[in-house]
């Protein structure tokens, strides 16, 4: 299993604030690796300063810093109006939910084998549920999600008001039909999404384990849990392996005691107890004995006892509940809708005031509110939702990004507003396929083009050994004594290569697995010693892909690992001879030690050798003095290679027996077991012989470097969050050009206390333009005490790498960026461990890869390769945002212009609250007469896709939100007021003698104006836009013959009718044309002048 990552629950924000003024215990300070002097020992009690000048000031300045950031709190009515009411409502809802869904306290448990009746506690159903709603909450839940938007809530109130006779100003369908359509579309979409979630849950819950082990160990795949694609070796409880038959498991009296459910997927504590044996057997259980849910038994067969079920499993505990994502554009439009509502109320009050508050003025006020309700158009939601569906269809039909799937159709505009991209490493930036690239022996270096020389040396050395062993029958013991007493001589290159390759072939945790020829189930089995070790059906499995790459390389040069079990391993020499080595001890890799070791005994000679490999920072103090290791490690790291230092030490029988006694004694100690075991192992790690330095390359995904460079040029800051080791993450950050060659990298030292975090943050603060690399443990400490300062510093970095991150920590980092910066975040990953991060981000992208489909199914957008994210953001993100911004503002303009005309009309008729246009005219205006041309704006584009990809700097403008802002909104408001006034006053002025035809005249001019305004807004014409324009115009002309009852002022009051003879005259046509030209021509002139003297940035590229 991967190394242990201690996880701690994240403190609440209130705890973080108080932490500024609290200090860590004295004992913790004394144990600190930073031994600070007396005068600076009070650092632990001081908040971190954020400037050089402040850091030089005296102690009193520190205590003023946190207060300086505390903003003035609003109180009383001001607080209630400015969002307090929303806070109160949310608090009440949370309180009710907590009352209804009180979480049961998690406890440790005892599980008896074959005796479920002995379990006293009730545990959760062993089922996963990712659905948002159930049968009873679906309709209330969907309605709540819709009516929490001001726009929909407003129209619900307006529509309900039409049931009151005194307030009715038109037909019910003019209000309820659009609202019903919006709700119906939303409910159908949510129902489809919910059904898909139900099907995925059903498929997941139908997968059960039903396997049995024979040899006491098996392999599992954990890619959906921790993102690592390599197989992990798991070991069974040893006392159950001695049972004669499987059925005996249920006849013994035994139980498992396990710790309470935890978030940490890298640790487990428990005991197995068998009571019916004499004496009672107690066996400790660790992470090696566990199979977590969401892992796959990849090799071997297993029978286990279930400890955690349902929502108490590690995978579910590390997955956050999916949230309903709302795009930034929708929130901005919601704010503009509120501004329109204030304008609506103000206009209605003005009309009632000018009326003189005569009669039942409050009823007139409400009628004016209804008359001007088209200021806030219900068609805004319809158009935007249909636009989002169109953008999703365009993304999925793009041949340049095949296989892309849009799973959340409500946020395509988010792709054009991103500032932070948080990416996984394994399987996302890299293919997780390691290739051996370099072997360095100190005086000579071998690369991929000189590996044949190594192969020749290996073949020659083993052929000489074979001939010597066949010609010499001397016992191994005397030869070992002679060898140990012989003086040191300079080894030949051939012998050094032989020693290095043998060390690499032996020092690892790799197990060869062979496909079973007899079985038809497709399962793999271990090869027996007497089997034919054929190369065709052998695969290597280990917890690290680096180790597999090393063993595959030794096979390519002639020394092949053919078999391994818990006590021995066999190598095959180039000549076909089987060499057996007994495994005496294995010291696995940990993130603390940064190295792994193994002690083996050669069967043929009896020699005992201690081999070790690890990171250069750990091994440099262990190996004998040399003058090349540090320099060559730096050279390989600059090439993007992952380096490992390999060393050995020969042990006599006496030395090993002494070590084994001390090692076993340390393992039995109760107090400080880990420290004592580490001390015993470290006693061996002295003056080891340096054998070689290896360089392995983790192959990057296709076009990762140019894609990351494009994103960087677009102003997107990239953070890499990975569960991998610090050295590996740093290496990939360099090789992928996440960190450019000219930038420095600051590796944040491990910190465990507030004082250490304080000093390390101040050291980092003095660095400029350097990337940050930090581990999950250190990050947790920094966020506990210095959340604001850390995020502020990290956001200034060109790139950030967080290694050893748990799934929960990844999601927490996303939420921190959202909270502290207010910018839009995107998370991309390919494994089950990335799901929480993907769901927490404003925009989640999943990659379908080796680690399965869990990330892509949970994401908002699913792609097949990382390089596709460039086109997804630069082209589709840009187009979606630009088009929706234009569409939303134009729909608002369409409502504002008709409301302006209504206001002019009412003021002319002594502020009477009667409608200008009735019934089908209002519905037709928002639909068949103008809908198609307005909606055709979803086909508009300002720059060609090739240009957007070539100049990613254009993306920076999108993140500033200039396409939809209060400035652009006010411009459209002014245009609407101007055009509405011209159309209404023009109609009244030119047609004073034919006053009864004013409705037909003004409405005709209005339709012409809207069609011309669409043409004015379009930047790139599409043939469908032309069709939409002429189709709408044709529909209006054709409908004139059928709508004569609507073209009259007040219809009932004036009894007006459509004079077909009149509208076909030249007088009618030129006067309508004159009004239309006056309303549109000035805007065309202004647009031309603006483009000439203040052109947008993209116009310079398209010219």
UniProtKB/TrEMBL annotation:
Its cofactor is Mg(2+). Residues 857-1095 form the P-type ATPase C-terminal domain. One of its GO terms (cellular component) is endosome. It is a multi-pass membrane protein. Mg(2+) binds at residues 424, 426, 830, 834. The keyword Coiled coil does not apply. PROSITE patterns: ATPASE_E1_E2. Residues 119-176 form the P-type ATPase N-terminal domain. Residues 463-479 have a biased composition (Low complexity). It is found in: Golgi apparatus, trans-Golgi network membrane; Membrane. One of its GO terms (biological process) is retrograde vesicle-mediated transport, Golgi to endoplasmic reticulum. Its EC number is 7.6.2.1. Its main location: Golgi. Residues 463-491 are annotated as: Disordered. Belongs to the cation transport ATPase (P-type) (TC 3.A.3) family. Type IV subfamily. This is Phospholipid-transporting ATPase. It comes from Chrysemys picta bellii. The gene is ATP9B.
